[in-house]
Amino acid sequence: MPARGIPVNQAACSLRELVDKRRRRRGGGFAIVVGLSLTVLISFAALAIDVSYLRLVDAQVQNATDAAAHAGVSQLDGTDEGLDLARSAAIEVAAMNLVAGDPLVLTDDQVVFGVWDTDVGTFTASDDPSEVNALDIQGSVADVSALVRGAAGWTGTVGASAATTAMQFWDGASEVDCYLPVVLPICLMDEYGTEEIMEVDLVFAPSTADNVGWGRGEGTPNANFVKSQVADCTQDGPLSTDDTVGMHEGVTTPGFKAIESAIEGSTTTWDTSTWGSLPEPMEGSTVASSAYGNTLEGPIPIVQHCDDSSFTGTAEVEGFTWAVIFDVVAKGSASEKNIRVRIDTQNLHDFGTEIGGTDYGVQAATAVIVR
């Protein structure tokens, strides 16, 4: 009789089934491990991306509030209208800056006016336009939508915010990058004072008049310098208080011609609210009648010089004031050629690179971030 047992083909089939079951169990385990690992990896990736994104948004909010503060504080002028203009400017500039892809929207309550005490470094809220010299902006976005928040399974909202306080400086400039090649002797400031001198026509000649002269930092203001400095007031580099200025009173026809051309091509005009009615042209004025009333404007140095009858030699810069050249005679004899200047010592002009000079109407900056 044949031996009893499991047929060979049946045994082989059972062995394959056993192996397949083990493989399926092992494959299922791998799938679970891989699935859990992917979830963890996606969560960490989401966290890393979100953190970087939120940092970017924080920087965007800070940049937007900084820009808004600078824009707002530049409008402060001691009046209620100035406060309104400052708030509007801050809100408008904030909206020009994108935060998380959208404009930063400021409400009226987020623009707070006040007084910055430079001695103790504190900001006190105030609505009195006569004392307000600073504003504080609290910029924020309530919900920053994370890039992969849903994939990570997170809920809720995440915001971003930034605060900027900017104050207005009322000190004069101690350095300017741009200056017209004209100097004013401090003796005239002492004689007239900062208000009365705004009514005086300062002229280049004759020497017995209330006159100005040519000036150049650390050099001689020859004809080529005057011409090039009128064309580009930055070409000679910065000029600072205590720098030495070379002075000259000689007639330079190219310089007069350059001033005449600059006036005729200028986009600035005579300000009647500052100086009153525009004076009649000088006899022999070479400024085109259609351009009379245009002005060539910029800061000029006030020099430690008290002999207004002579502009030779050198002198130290005491400070800067705002000059407006509005008429020129560029033809005729040397005694006939002339320029006519008014200065503005009462209105502050944002024209300078450093704060700290005597205040003659030119300031170095309208605002600085203090917090």
How would you describe what is shown here?
This protein has 371 residues and is an alpha+beta fold. The chain has 2 domains: 159 residues, no CATH class; 197 residues, no CATH class. 33% of the residues lie in helices and 28% in strands. The chain is built from 7 helices and 20 strands. The chain has a 5-stranded antiparallel beta sheet with strand order 4-3-5-6-20. It has a 5-stranded mixed beta barrel with strand order 8-10-12-15-14. Strand 3 and strand 4 form a beta hairpin.
Main attributes of the structure:
371 residues, alpha+beta, 7 helices, 2 domains, elongated, five-stranded mixed barrel, 20 strands, five-stranded antiparallel beta sheet, single chain
Question: Would you spell out the secondary-structure blueprint of this structure?
Answer:
Layout: H1 8-73, H2 80-95, E1 98-99, E2 102-103, E3 111-117, E4 122-125, E5 134-141, H3 149-152, E6 160-167, E7 172-176, E8 182-185, H4 186-196, E9 202-203, E10 213-217, H5 223-231, E11 239-240, E12 244-248, H6 253-264, E13 268-269, H7 272-275, E14 294-303, E15 313-329, E16 338-344, E17 349-350, E18 354-360, E19 362-363, E20 368-369
Parallel strand pairs: 8-14, 15-18, 17-19
Antiparallel strand pairs: 1-2, 3-4, 3-5, 5-6, 6-20, 7-11, 7-18, 8-10, 9-16, 10-12, 12-15, 13-14, 14-15, 15-16
Helix pairs in contact: 1-2, 5-6
